[in-house]
Each structure stands twice: as structure tokens, then as C-alpha cells.
Amino acid sequence: MHGVTDPNHQLIAVGYEPVTGTLVCQFKTAKWGYGPGVPEAEFMKLRHSPFAYRIFTCNIKGKFTATKLEGKDNYEQKR
Fold this sequence. Notes:
Layout: E1 2-3, E2 11-17, E3 22-27, E4 31-34, H1 40-48, H2 52-59, E5 66-70, E6 76-77
Antiparallel strand pairs: 1-2, 2-3, 3-4, 4-5, 5-6
Helix pairs in contact: 1-2
């Protein structure tokens, strides 16, 4: 996992599995997995953006299958 810059402190860190194209996001309250099929370029944008949460909401959220990995009540959301 790699720390990210988020002025709102919602998104804390991201990780990436290149074989499956799975993005892992550690938020303030839970850890979520997105994919498969997330391009590595999106992971790199999150790592290097000064507004990582904005990039996440525009490019990832709602576009890939989301699976809650840690936190209260694990569940999967199909998008």
C-alpha cells in the first residue's frame, strides 16, 4: 500500500495487483477492492495526484465492481 495525498483525509492509501488489475483503497473507515480490470494508469494517477479522492470518485467509483475487504459488514457492490 502506498500513501496518497487527500486534503479531505478520506482516501489514505492505495495498492495495485497488476495481474488481475485490482485496485485496493484504504479509506478512513474501511478497505475496499475495485476490479478486476482497473488500468495501472489509474493507480498511478491516485498515487501522484494532490487530490486522490477526487480522482477516485471520477475514475474508479461506480465504474468497477467494489468489494469491501475490511470494516463493518463485508459485502460486494456490482456496478
